[in-house]
Amino acid sequence: MKNWLAGALLAALVGPAAAFEQAKYAVVPSVTIYPGDVIGANAVDAVAVTNPNLAPGYASSVDQVVGKVSKRTLIAGRTIQLGALQEPFAVKRGTNVRLTFSSSQMVISARGSSTQDAMVGELIKVRNLDTGVTVTGTVMADGSVEVLQR
């Protein structure tokens, strides 16, 4: 009798908790997305997760993927792993950028051409358009490059 009562109490406590669980969602592409593509809101859908054994690390909200760049091919209908996404490039190869060099006594600005794609905070090589010298600097949020002191 005690086992039956304990089982009934356990079922009464667990049952309502299961009813309040939030439904899980995963973001899947509605079309194939290729490496380097910027993901738009019209290219993805949020679907309910029906597989309880789905590996973690997938995008669960459309906001997590819109505006990001795909690092690999994303197949329509399959979950998007967060590791397959990156922030868009702040500087693209071949574009003109503003170079700045600052020390405690002066600030020097020049025009440069980036030799590679880079995100904010990354080191990048840039060719100075006035001198032809290639310098290394850090990409800033405004798209300029802060030249490193040697």
Would you give an account of this structure?
- The protein has 150 residues and is α+β, with helices and mostly antiparallel strands.
- It is 12% helix and 29% strand.
- The strands form 3 sheets. Strands 5-6-7-8-9 form a 5-stranded mixed barrel. A two-stranded antiparallel ribbon has the order 1-2. The chain has a two-stranded antiparallel sheet with strand order 3-4.
- A hairpin with a 5-residue loop joins β7 and β8.
- It is elongated.
- The relative contact order is 0.13.
- The mean pLDDT is 86.
Number of helices: 1
Structural class: alpha+beta
Summarize the helix and strand pattern as letters. HEEEEEEEEE
Structural shape: elongated
Mean pLDDT over all positions: 86
Report the major sheet.
5 strands, mixed, barrel
The rounded Rg comes to 25 Å
Low-confidence stretches: none
| Count of beta strands | 9
Distance between the termini: 82 Å
Percentage of residues assigned to helices: 10-25%
Main β-sheet, spatial strand arrangement: 5-6-7-8-9
% residues in beta strands: 25-35%
Break the fold down into its secondary structure elements and pairings.
Layout: H1 2-19, E1 25-29, E2 44-48, E3 69-70, E4 85-86, E5 96-102, E6 107-114, E7 123-128, E8 134-139, E9 145-147
Parallel strand pairs: 5-9
Antiparallel strand pairs: 1-2, 3-4, 5-6, 6-7, 7-8, 8-9
Q: Can you tag this structure with a few keywords?
A:
two-stranded antiparallel ribbon, alpha+beta
